[in-house]
Amino acid sequence: WVQEEAPDVLCLQETKCGVSAVPPEIRALPGLPHQFWASAEGRPGYSGVGLLAKTEPLNVTYGIGDPEHDADGRVVTAEFPSLFVVCAYVPNAGRGLVRLEPRMRFDAAFLEFLRRLDAQKPVLLCGDLNVAHAEIDLCHPRANRANPGFTPQEREGFTRLLGAGFVDSFRHLYPEARGAFTFWTYLGGARARNVGWRLDYAVVSQRLLGSLCDSKIRSTVTGSDHCPITALLAV
Question: Which residues constitute the catalytic centre (predicted)?
Answer without folding.
Answer: 89, 128 (proton donor/acceptor), 226 (proton acceptor)
